[in-house]
Write a structure and sequence with these properties.
heterodimer; A: five-stranded mixed beta sheet; five-stranded antiparallel beta sheet; 26 strands; 40% strand; B: two-stranded antiparallel ribbon; 8 helices; F-box_dom (chain A); F-box domain-containing protein (chain A); F-box-like_dom_sf (chain A); F-box-assoc_dom_typ1 (chain A)
């Protein structure tokens, strides 16, 4: 048999098929291969195909403090510096008081400049868009939410203040859903929502109810744009609750002398709140922690109020701790995000003129 | 086609003859069409040519013969597990010499399973490569001007063109 090993040139569609199976980290590196690879990898179409495609999406923790940004591979040991990536904010000036108020499909929702500037930023590919703030800049926002409406391929931002309002990225406009909203926050700072199964959740206070009836978990359904309440666990006592969505479940942390955690096993069913136990993380300054995610090994990753990440085992014992950035100005300095190459949908033509004013 | 035929003969692009069982050939749509169209009985002179070189065709046929029983009759979980392990061993090959040829052959022969497997294997091998290694295996020239490289470095700190 004759065996001639001729060099082989793969057609474009086969190369694309291979690239769709690569992780974001490799694809970002391979943008420098050639102009055609750069334009393919940067194209919104490729970003969408890659997100829908067969490659597994990796999740990283994002920490922001004092104009510095780091993303951390939380499966790696915290002392492993190679697991940390530094980012620059893609705007000429980085606001000093950026807070992370949501994370969805690779985008972070950032609020800055005394809550007057809103941004959506995908740190992986650098896509960033400034969002027009609500027209009345003096409104006080208690809760923020950021999510994606699959039915309309649109991103939405929800604010709960004295009114309930949402912003549609495609329409590039705000809409008031309810003139009167009876929920407020629990701290002196706005609370970001957590996404689960097409809804955004917050731990909130019902302003017209006495304690303890005032504690509520509220859910904003992204598709129907409606707000509803779900019950808190029966044995929830103290008011300081931190709600997160971890590994497909809602988790609630009660921050007092000890940390009690619950996880809602069956969505919306009060009886399905299961107490995960009590953590006593006295070894570090953990008086207020927020759970972020689970590692591959099943350890809980949590952040405290001084941008320190901790790994805890199922007994609540501290396995690792590292402070990643200087002291942030806000508790909301960290989030978990998915590495994607997604772009934002364009603003529909009717609204383009308005949109340009904000670019 | 006579039902008594169990294997067919095909020619590689190098002109070598290969035997492939009918059930294995069914994994490929074009081969399946050939089965229906062409007379494969012993007294038939016509031997179809597959536009795949001999070295690659050996591997493609090996894959087909291994996967045919499962594709034709379904398989238990333990079989599927065994087949997965076999696939991993089967795919241990050099990217440029043979893997890319298998990719092209699987694409040409419409073999979805092998195509997916080869794409994934290529991606896994490429994952940790440098930009220059990628250019080498794909025969790509760095067509960025030094100004463009500088601009990209500014946009994406830490990016490397080597």
């Amino acid at each position: 048999m004759s065996r001639q090993e001729s060099s082989i040139h793969l057609p474009k569609e086969v190369i694309e098929e291979i690239l769709l199976r690569l992780p974001v980290k490799s694809l970002l590196r391979f943008r420098c291969v050639s102009k055609s690879w750069l334009s393919l990898i940067s194209s919104p179409r490729f970003g969408e195909l890659h997100f829908q495609g067969p490659s597994k999406h990796s999740h990283r923790a994002f920490v922001s403090a004092q104009q510095q940004f780091q993303s951390i591979d939380f499966d790696a040991p915290f002392h492993d510096d190679s697991a940390i990536v530094k980012f620059n904010f893609p705007r000429p000036t980085t606001p000093a008081d950026l807070e992370i108020m949501g994370s969805c499909r690779g985008f972070l929702f950032l609020v800055a400049d005394k809550k007057r500037k809103y941004f959506l930023w995908n740190p992986s590919n650098g896509v960033c868009r400034k969002i027009p703030p609500p027209l009345d800049l003096d409104i006080f926002v208690y809760m923020y939410g950021f999510g994606y409406d699959e039915s309309t391929d649109d991103y939405i931002i929800v604010i709960i203040s004295d009114v309930l309002a949402f912003f549609s990225l495609k329409a590039n406009s705000w809409e008031i859903l309810d003139d009167e909203c009876e929920y407020t926050y629990q701290y002196d700072q706005p609370t970001p929502g957590s996404i689960l199964n097409g809804a955004i959740y917050w731990f909130a206070f019902h302003s017209r109810e006495p304690e303890p009836e005032c504690f509520a978990i509220i859910a904003f359904d992204i598709k129907s744009k409606t707000l509803s309440e779900i019950p808190v666990p029966d044995d929830f006592e103290y008011g300081l609750g931190i709600l997160t969505s971890v590994a497909g479940c809602l988790t609630l942390t009660e921050n007092c002398d000890v940390l009690k955690m619950w996880v809602m096993e069956k969505y919306g069913l009060e009886s399905s709140w299961r107490n995960l136990g009590t953590l006593s993380p006295d070894e570090v300054h953990m008086e207020a922690i927020s759970s972020l995610c689970f590692t591959k090994d099943g350890h809980l990753v949590a952040i405290n109020s001084i941008s320190g990440l901790a790994k805890l085992n199922h007994r609540g014992e501290l396995l690792e701790y590292r402070k990643f950035l200087p002291e942030p100005h806000s508790f909301y300095c960290a989030s978990v995000y998915t590495e994607t190459l997604l772009s934002l949908p364009s603003v529909s033509c009717d609204h383009l003129v308005e949109a340009e004013q904000y670019c | 086609m006579s039902s008594s035929v169990e294997a067919i003969t095909v020619l590689s692009s190098d002109g070598d003859e290969f035997k492939i069982t009918v059930s294995a050939a069914k994994l490929s749509k074009p081969l399946n069409w050939m089965l229906e169209d062409v007379c494969f009985s012993d007294d038939c002179d016509e031997v179809p040519t597959i536009e795949v070189n001999s070295k690659t065709l050996v591997k493609v046929i090996e894959y087909c013969e291994k996967h045919a029983p499962r594709a034709n009759s379904g398989a238990s979980d333990s079989d599927a597990e065994e087949l997965k392990k076999w696939d991993i061993e089967f795919m241990k090959m050099d990217v440029k010499d043979i893997l890319f040829h298998i990719l092209m052959a699987a694409n040409y022969l419409h073999m979805e399973g092998l195509y997916d497997l080869a794409c994934q294997t290529a991606a896994d091998l490429m994952k940790g490569m440098t930009v220059s290694q990628i250019r080498k295996i794909f025969h790509i020239k760095n067509d960025f001007s030094s100004e463009e490289q500088e601009q990209l470095r500014r946009q994406h700190p830490g990016c490397s063109f080597d």
